Each structure stands twice: as structure tokens, then as C-alpha cells.
Amino acid sequence: MTYENLDSDLVNELLNDGRSSLRSLAEELDVSVTTVSNHLSDLEDEGVIEGYTPKIDYDAVGYDVTAVMQLKAEGNALPEITETLKDHRQMISVYEVTGDYDVIAIGKFKDTDDMNDQIKQLITDPDINQSSTSIVLNAVSENEQFELETDGDS
């Protein structure tokens, strides 16, 4: 096999099954186990692959309320606000954005009372000028990843 697309192919195989063994990856990609191991180590060192974690269905474990918060922050307070949100265990995504708001944060909560209590604590920061919270009614697509393109793709 040519190694031209090996890294992308390796990532794509792991997206299909993150628990694949080095041996099964090597067989699927038609390379040696050592080659897979070396490329995998390089991808980890480069930060392309950041870890191996299970996909959790939060609804199934009782966190069935998803909230999307939009926040306007006081100028230089943005890093502190995003750090606070990032460190909150139930915030699954925190983004600095352009547009009408400065931050978008997505959190998972057990119920609306839990959400209300926690969001009230988070947004009492005097450096948050404005907030808007939406509750997700239906998650059509969530936590999806996509396969990387290779030269063979068109």
C-alpha cells in the first residue's frame, strides 16, 4: 500500500471503531502493525488524535435537557468567562464567536430546574452584559464527526 493517504485512512478507520486493535487496523489498511503504531503515535504527538473516549448518550443517563447559551461579555473579561464555562463539568462545548454575542456555550442538564439553577450561577458574573438561553427541543444531529478526505475522494 502507498502511504500517501495512510494518516487519513487511519483516522477514518478509528472514526468507524475507536477500539480497533493495531493488528486489525494494520490488516484493514494493508500495512504492518509497526507502521500503524508509528503513524498513530505521530498523529497523537501532533494533536490530530486527542484521545479515545466513548460516545455517551446523555439522554440515556438522565441528562436530557440541552441548553444553548449566548452571552455578551465585557471587553477584556472574555477569557475569564470562557474559562469558567469550559471548567463547568456540564458544559460540553464553549465557543468564542463573531456576531451579536461573544460566546456560545452548550450544556447538558438533568432537568429544567437543574439547568435554571446552574445557568443562574454562571451568568451572575457582572462582566456578562447580556444572555439568551434556548432549550433544545430535538437533537437532530449531535457530536458527529466526519471522515477525512483522501486523494481518492472526489
Please name the defining characteristics of this protein.
154 residues; alpha+beta; Arc Repressor Mutant, subunit A; Alpha-Beta Plaits; 2 domains
For the record, the CATH architecture of the largest domain stands as 2-Layer Sandwich
Helix content: 25-40%
- The assigned structural class equals alpha+beta
Unreliable segments of 5+ consecutive residues = none
Shape field: elongated
Order of strands in the sheet with the most strands? Answer: 2-3-1-4
Radius of gyration: 20 Å
Q: How would you describe what is shown here?
A:
The protein has 154 residues and is α+β, with helices and mostly antiparallel strands. The chain has two domains: 6-45, Arc Repressor Mutant, subunit A (Orthogonal Bundle); 58-135, 2-Layer Sandwich (Alpha-Beta Plaits), CATH 3.30.70.920. The chain has five helices and four strands. The protein has helices at residues 6-16, 22-29, 33-45, 78-87, 112-122, and strands at 65-73, 91-96, 103-109, 128-135. It has a four-stranded antiparallel sheet. Strand 2 and strand 3 (103-109) form a beta hairpin. Helix 2 (22-29) crosses helix 3. The two termini are 20 Å apart.
Could you outline the blueprint of secondary structure elements for this entry?
Blueprint: H1 6-16, H2 22-29, H3 33-45, E1 65-73, H4 78-87, E2 91-96, E3 103-109, H5 112-122, E4 128-135
Antiparallel strand pairs: 1-3, 1-4, 2-3
